[in-house]
Specification:
The chain is mainly beta and 384 residues long. It has two domains: 96 residues, no CATH class; 276 residues, Porin. 5% of the residues lie in helices and 60% in strands. Strands 2-3-4-5-6-7-8-11-12-15-16-17-20-21-22-23 form a 16-stranded antiparallel β-barrel. The protein has a two-stranded antiparallel sheet with strand order 9-10. The chain is globular and about 60 Å long.
């Protein structure tokens, strides 16, 4: 409770604050704003997502975030965001200082690592409720370090060096579960390059590539997948105790024209291990298509290579239909294949309120045995 009070006090104390700092900084104006995100989910899923025991359903406070952000003079800005879970625990999401000069940006602190189009896009504005199985497996989430982003004509370069060492929580799953590593001085090097060869008012072609090299020596690493749904248990999980390093390579593309868009990514993840027991190679891809029956266009940001908020064309809101298919192979002592298909609809009441419904079919083949199941996911979202 003390931590909760301290964080809320810190954030609210900044509310509406805009002045000039004196005593040597009196000519530097500091501006500030408060914002946040609420996501409430209802999911109903087959026993495949519940340790093969029985069908289940959940109501989940997926995200409750509060942030404060602002500018310090002309070149610096900052952001602090925390998330509150159902148990009252507080987790720091973003916590960084940002320096911008011309087309170059430097971030010091905890940020989202630049790895993949789905992974770098805010969960507020991704089309599907949850990431595709392959994106959720390879996404390292947020890390503390030094990040550089530069924009040069039609290209964007995003590079970072991050702490992946002692007590570093390496999230390589979509269950919200994290494994605490015990290694010292381990680092992660992550980079992403995007190119927009064609762009007009409502048409974009996006190409990109990403790479991450992650030192994991003496780290307890867990890699798992929930198959595009956060159920009671992952549909694949493997604990690695002798991994030396992890290498991730990704390719991505997206094409948006008026109210239609298509995007896809392919990733490989290779674990260099000291024991054959910890051998694991992951290979997967997804393809997603989206169509606004009310005529809107997905909001693409070339400078950051991701998607943003949707502003409905009318007071009646915007309706988006989409479909996504993903396949992932986990190759270890025995191979596991996941095939996931998601169909969904998003209703944007306005720019701040979104209601989503996803239907997921998953097939899992392991050791020659095939299992399948269905899941249904409903989300209410408020951005403030």
């Amino acid at each position: 409770m003390k931590r909760l009070f301290a964080c809320v006090t810190l954030l609210l104390s900044q509310f509406g604050f805009a002045n000039e700092v004196d005593k040597g900084l009196k000519n530097i104006e500091i501006t500030n704003s408060i914002g946040g995100l609420i996501q409430i989910d209802y999911s109903d899923y087959d026993k495949l997502w519940n340790n093969d025991l029985f069908d289940a359903s959940d109501i989940d406070l997926r995200r409750l975030r509060l942030n404060t952000k602002g500018k310090i003079g002309n070149d610096f800005s900052y952001k602090l965001e925390v998330n509150f879970n159902e148990n009252g625990d507080i987790k720091v999401e973003d916590a960084f200082v940002h320096y911008k000069k011309s087309n170059s940006n430097i971030y010091i602190g905890q940020v989202l690592e630049p790895l993949g189009l789905e992974g770098i896009t805010s969960p507020k504005w991704n089309t599907a409720i949850e990431l595709s199985p392959i994106s959720s497996v390879i996404s390292p989430g947020r890390s503390t370090g030094l990040t550089y982003r530069g924009n040069f004509d039609k290209t964007m370069v995003h590079l970072g060096v991050y702490d992946n060492g002692r007590q570093k929580k390496t999230r390589l799953n979509d269950q919200g579960e994290e494994s605490t590593g015990q290694a010292k001085n381990n680092l992660a090097y992550t980079g992403r390059f995007t190119f927009v060869p064609y762009q007009s008012e409502n048409t974009f072609l996006h190409l990109g590539a990403a790479y991450s090299y992650r030192e994991t020596e003496n780290t307890n690493l867990s890699i798992s997948s929930g198959g595009a749904i956060r159920g009671d248990s992952p549909v694949f999980a493997k604990a690695l105790t002798t991994a030396n390093e992890v290498k991730i390579v990704g390719l991505e593309t997206a094409f948006i024209t008026n109210n239609f868009s298509i995007q896809g990514e392919h990733f490989t993840l290779d674990v260099d291990e000291r024991s054959a027991v910890d051998k694991l190679d992951v290979d997967g891809w997804y393809l997603l298509t989206s169509y606004f029956i009310t005529g809107e266009t997905r909001n693409y940001y070339a400078k950051t290579g991701d998607f943003g908020s949707i502003k409905p064309n009318s007071k009646h809101g915007a309706v988006e239909l989409f479909g996504r298919h993903s396949e992932v192979t986990f190759d270890s002592a025995s191979s596991v294949d996941l095939d996931s298909t998601t169909l969904g609809v998003n209703y944007y009441v306005n720019q701040d309120i979104k209601v989503s419904f996803n239907a997921v079919r998953l097939e899992r083949e392991s050791a020659g045995e095939l299992a399948s199941g269905y899941a249904y996911h409903l989300r209410f979202q408020l951005v403030y």
